[in-house]
Every structure is written in structure tokens, then in C-alpha cells.
Give the backbone structure.
Amino acid sequence: MKNIAIVFTSFVFLMVGCTQENHNNESAAMKGDYNNSNELQEEDSIKEKGKQNSKEFRGSVEEKRNFDGIHQLLVHPGNSNGPTYFAVNKKTFEQIEIGEQVVVQYNSKGVKFHSSPPQREAEEVKILTE
């Protein structure tokens, strides 16, 4: 029940934030203040900050689950840190099999649900070949 409340609350904050961003962009466009070069610079800056906060999590996929339409992989690093659920896109979810060794890239400053095990959003997942 606690996990459902956390997911719902996060979804509400995400929707409110997206709605506000669209409203701000529409207002700026109506005023004629919208500048594409500034938007591109901001996007590049955001991408660069994301790379600085990117971390790797190596481990074995122990479980795959579809939790309310969110595709998740449970990855265990094989040490005392314990496993973490990573939200992935549908294509990645379908490509990866239980037992495969993977490297998950995630944003260390991104959203982390403090459940047991913790949950994060994966930026990229690479399958390690042996």
C-alpha cells in the first residue's frame, strides 16, 4: 500500500510539473519571447549536468515485473548493498532475461524511492557478454 501511495504521489508531481512547463512555454511563445537558441543551450546544459550525476550499477537481473504499467528490473550487485529495482522502457524490458549480467546507468540526483528494495529510473541498461 505504501508503494502505491509513493508511486501515485510521484505521478501527481510529475503531471503538475509537466503541465506548468507547457503553460510557461505557451505563455512565452504568445509574448514573442521564445528563443530557440536559448532553449537548445538549456537542453545541452541539462544533458551535461545529467552526465555528471550519472552512476553505474552492475549486477545480475533477478526479477522482471510490470508494476502498474511500469516495467522494472530487479538487479542485484552480488554484494551486501542489496538489489535495486530499475524502471526501464518496454523494449529494454523485453530484451533482457533473468540471470543476465547488466550495467545500469542512472542519475544519482534523480528520484529514488526508499522502499525495500529501493527503486530508481534507469537511463540506460547494457547487457554484459561473457
Summary: Residues 18 and 120 are 20 Å apart (CA to CA). The longest helix spans residues 2-31.
